[in-house]
Amino acid sequence: MTPYKTEDHCYQTVDGIDLMGRLYRPEMDGPIPFVVEAHGGAWSSGDRMNNAHIHQQFASSGIGVFALDFRLADQAAFPAPVIDINSGVRWFKANAKNLRVTPSVTGGLGSSSGGQQMGLVALLPNDPLYRSDDPALADVDASLDFFIGCWPILDPLARHQMARANGKERLVSATNTYFSSDAAMRTGNPFLVVERGDATHLPPVVIIQGTEDDNVEHGRADLFAKIYRAAGGNVDLHKYEGQPHNFIKADIDADASKSAIEKLKTFILAQT
Predict the structure, then answer these.
(1) What is the reported pLDDT for 38?
(2) What does pTM read for this prediction?
(3) Which residues contact 200 (CB under 8 A, 6 or more apart)?
(4) Cα 117 vs. chain centroid, distance in angstroms?
C-alpha cells in the first residue's frame, strides 16, 4: 500500500463562505492520476468527507484526490454550486505545483447529486453558465480527462418525477430547493445535455450503480450509457445486483464494494 498525507486548502471564498478542499497526496515520485470529487447529499447536505472511505482507498493505491466542499442548496441554488465545483477543478489545476503534486491526468468523480454537478463540468467545462470570471483562473479550463459517476443523478428531472410518484418528500423538497423550476432541471441535466447534442466534451466515463437503489432508478444509468455511446463517448457501466444507493459507504468491506473500488482504480489507472 502507498502511504499518503492529507491536508485541507481553501480554494475559494464566496459570500463569506470558505470553500475547502481536502487533498490526499500519495507519497510517490513522478506524475500520478488525480480525481477531483463532488459529494452527494441531495444537493442539500454533506461535505468533502462524505466519501473519505473511497478517497482513502484511492490514495493508498497511488491515486490522488482533491475532495471539494461547495455551497449547498440552502446557501445557493443551481447553477451556483456547479460554478463552485468548476472553480475547484480549475483551482486545483492552477495550484498543482504549489500543492506539490504533478497530475498525470485529472478526472472528476461525482456521487449521487454530485454526479449531476460534476457531470455538467465534465460535459461543459467552459460553459459561461458554470464558469466564474475569477481573474486568477482566467487561463485555466475545467476540462476533465475522465468522469466517474457513483450512483449518479444524471437526469434530475426524471429523478424528481420518480420521487414525486413514490412519495419521497425529502427528495422532492431537496430538489425544489436546489432547482428553481422544471426548466432549470432540463438545463442542468447531463442526460439531456448529451441527448440534445450540447456537450462540448465527452471524456471516458465509468458508472457504478446498484440495482436496488431506491434513490434513483437504476435503468437511468443504462439510458445514459446508451446515448453517450451514440454521441461518440466511451462508457463502462458496472451494475451490482441487490445493492442500494451509496452501497460502498454502507459496507466498505462487502464483496460488491471491494469489486467496485477495484474497477474504479483500474479505470483511473488506465487513463494514464
Answers:
(1) 98
(2) 0.97
(3) 123, 124, 125, 126, 127
(4) 6
Which helix (H) or strand (E) segment is 50 a member of? none
Nearest to 96 by CA among 106, 108, 107: 106
Residue 64, φ and ψ in degrees, nearest 5: -80, 155
What pLDDT digit, counting tens, does each position of 97-136 carry?
A: 999 999 999 999 999 999 999 999 999 999 999 999 999 9
> Residues 202-223: what's their mean pLDDT?
98
Helices (H), 107-216: 113-123, 156-165, 169-178, 182-187, 190-195
Contact by Cβ (8 Å): 197, 231: yes
Query: Average model confidence (pLDDT) for the chain?
Result: 97
- Decide yes or no: CATH 3.40.50.1820 for domain 4-270: yes
Q: Is the peptide bond before 79 cis (omega within 30 degrees of 0)?
A: yes
CA-nearest of 120, 197, 186, 187 to 152 is 120
β-strands 64-68, 32-38 pairing:
parallel
For the chain, where are the E strands, in sequence order? 4-14, 17-26, 32-38, 64-68, 103-111, 147-150, 205-210, 235-240
Among residues 64, 66, 65, the alpha carbon closest in space to that of 32 is found at 64
Question: Cα(130)–Cα(95) distance, rounded to whole angstroms?
Answer: 20
